User: What shape does this take?
Amino acid sequence: MHELSIAHSLVEIASEAACQANAKRVEAVTLRLGALSGVVKDALLFSYDIVIEDTPLAGSRLQIEELPVVVYCPDCDVQSTLPGVQQFRCDRCGRPTAQIIQGKELEIISLEYTE
Amino acid sequence: MSTRILDLHQGILDKNDRLAYELRREFEAAGVYVANLVSSPGTGKTAFLERTLSMLIEQGCMAAALVGDLATENDARRLERSGAPVRQIVTAGICHLEANMIASHLDGWRLADFDFLFIENVGNLVCPSSYDLGEALRVVLLSVTEGEDKPLKYPPLFNSADLAVITKIDLAEAVEFDCSATYANIQAVCPGIPVWETSAKTGDGMAAWVEYLKRRKLDWQQAIRSRE
Assistant: This one.
């Protein structure tokens, strides 16, 4: 389980940003998580609550926006949103495609804070 | 007291990715082709790597290895039998390698002396997928004893790989390994990925794999030259 180390990196980045913004209290951190990021949402939420203790993020909540995988088919010039991560193929022609447009995200989007 | 939103849009692994980018540049400048080997524990990464190192050295190539494990230096001792320079990275419980662990284990090595550098990642089919180590090639290994549906169970790692190697092919018959189902599952999660079948024990497929690796290195060198 590497979600704990992911949570540490997340909190390090967000804490620094909160200090620079002179945040009095951070209410929420919003994160974008792709289906191919290799990170498990529940494990990350669990780790977050442990890691934020005694940091500028203490008491904040983590909001996770989950993104499905989107692939591009060069033959059809079409993007397909995949229902899972087991079949990388075009919705229209059914041919396999390895061109990933979305799904690897592991990104902090924003901080909600009071000043 | 007012509520504000601060836009960040920052990758959580940016720090690792930046370091990996620098490492990749350093490897390219030195002309050392770096392969990151990932698999679950027990796939036979070490046996596969030991044989690969021995063969490369026999053929006059300079090859070195970094090997990651949670504990012990056993794997480094095994790999040293090949005659290659080897360093063990003991992660002390961390389930994957990160770019800074690679950077901190290169001191004293002249990278330009090496043709190949192998990184044997910690045995784990989940966590290593998120961490770029600056490698030119990510190789995922899967043994015939693990079950044909492994790629479907661990898609992020298989999808992140450039190459798949099926190991312990000498046991295929004994375990009734379904080769075509395995290929189909690998291709489903990573369309177009090349797949090699090998046995480090009998040597089956190893010569073809080493030849292929050397060809990939030539392609890589050409790509760097044409970029410059």
